[in-house]
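Supplementary material to the annual report.
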Amino acid sequence: MSELIAQLKEWRDTAQRVLPPWWSKALAGALIVIGVVLPFFFSNSSGFMNATIIAVAFAVMSLGLNVVVGFAGLLDLGYVAFYALGAYSLGWFGSGFFFKAHVHLGVSPVASTLPGIHLNFLLILVCAALICAVAGVIIGLPTLRLRGDYIAIVTLAFGEIIGVVAVNGQSVHVGGGMTLTAGNLGISAVDAPYFPGIGLFNLLNLRPWYWLIYGILVLVLFVNLRLRDSRLGRAWIALREDEVAAVSMGIPAVRTKLMAYAIGATFGGMSGAFLGTYYTEVNAGQFQFGFSIFVLAMVIIGGLGSIWGAVVGGLLLGYINNWLIPDVLNNLPSKLGLNFPLTEVEFGIFGFLLVMVMVLRPQGLVPERRRRMELTAEIAAEDAQLMEGTR
Amino acid sequence: MPAVPARPLALVRRYLGRWGLLAALAALPIYYGIRDLTHGYQAGVVAGHPVIQHDLSRLGFNLAQGLSNGAIWALIAIGYTLVYGIIELINFAHGDVFMVGSFTAAGFWGSIGLGAATGTIGLIGGLILTLIVSMAVCGSLNVLIERVAYRPLRGAPKLAPLITAVGFSFILQNVGLLWRGGSPQGVTDLVHEQSTVFNISGVPIVRGYILALAVMVPLVFGLAWFISNTRAGRAMRATAQDPEAARLMGINVNATISLTFLLGGMLAGAAGLVYALYETNVWYFQGFEAGLIAFTAAVMGGIGNVRGAVLGGLIIGVIQALSDSRMGPQWTEAVVFGYLIVIMILRPRGLLGEEIREAG
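Predicted assembly:
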């Protein structure tokens, strides 16, 4: 095993010597082009295409959570809140749910005759982003004075509160006989995206859906790459590494942390709005604590703080969750003589993956350069050194 | 007489820090107490007419139910607080260890043949045996989890063991799911927990309440005695204070940490048995819910502090009972977590906690 790793390291070093310095950028460009033409290789409505769309949406969420957990080092266990708020933005502004209102803006001819609020999908994306940014700041505010694991618990509490409100929203009246959410019945018949010139999306032809979420992914990826190298991104990393030193260097801790929450939430909300319309329903049952952990697992497995790692982790777990477990391996336990479908224990599988990755490869699959240096050069954090002797 | 600080806001903040949490905690019982007295409540229906009462017995009923429920949370909360005190880890899997305790207890008393018809002496003996088995199973499970998932990460950043803890929590939940299925399962009501033993000014005290307190109180006192009076307990306190210095003094830090997990797991096992007898049903998700509630209790009392965990557990139990009976059980989770956030804002160190050490 160790010989194999040494061999791999040797190859990597050789590759770094031989290849020109711009090769990683060229690789990224090539990957993006491959992503664009991918749907032409698969049938229009195949299960694999469906899994790909969901996996790309998960990758967007993973990128968002990576900003909060990976860059700024604030462990957020309530990320499902932003998925929920994004999806409900779609449910509220893109369906007949608020049936007393009649608002129509840039929607298909059919939708513009229906009661309710109907906005164009791009406008809904903006709404979802704004709502989630505000919610991110609200969730972030009480955690500013707290340290690491307490932040985890407060964000978890917020995520659970939003989940409870979503389930019980049927009994929260907002006037005119309308309620806040439809609870476990779900807001159904949400609008599919419509763009003039392209027409209304439908689930028989999955390619437009794919390109839409792929466009969102590329946009979010670009913003992430630019953010990482910006002043704000460096401030996040400085705060993560040593808050006291960063603050004494003049970094405004409050604003910087709140920006991390807001931006991370924004991406989650955009992905949530997309998934809302793609699943054609916004159901409170989707927004469980397990999903927060699922997104966290994507970030961790990819490599904390690593942008490409977040994408890889999101795609990987997306495929495992939507293709490998339900389509490919679901009958495995019955072949082994056990009487349960594999989908029932998928969170156990993710838990197992989390434990294995943390114990065997804590830097993740595609580690961030700085983190790899930390972990290999043994420049661990101060408290790590303190506990060193107890190993 | 404390000096008035230069900024008036700081004064407000200081008073909020000192009294804000107490005010927030007292708000619910006082509000509902006054409401019961002024508006009255429906106590029952006699001959087709609702009986409206204007007294505090409904509040007393909530309190009794809450305190006994809180006794279970207290037992679980101690596990959180012990582990956090010694290695500063939120042991997410702890709630699910408690769930395994309930399942073990329910399975074990079934297999030794305890049933509704068993005589008193047989029942007491059987339950004590079940208690021992369930405590042993949960204690060893907790030690095992520490050995597999936390010890290899002792030198890693703090986030790492927290994540493996979450991972183990999911693994245990799925074990429970495969063990007893995905919906709550009724278990035999061995002790007839709803039968009233005596009344205190109109508030019925049922067997379940007495059982919960009768298990919790001796265990907590035993634990307190163990921590303060034995050599191993002293080693635990020393390790919690400074692991490095403790090691230099010749304490086997790893063994001490294992012992801490063993004690926490044993209390969770006891709580599991009481829960199964008290609620008369078990399901795989109970550990997750109970774990979050108990963690809130530990934080409320001041994490790292055993007395605080007991106090916090009892208080959370009362909040939960009030919310269950007045707002409806579907909102309870949100109410408990709302309280958690309020505590975090007003007094992050909890009721009895020390000033929190700064992150290293």
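Chain B touches chain A through 57 residues (CB under 8 Å).
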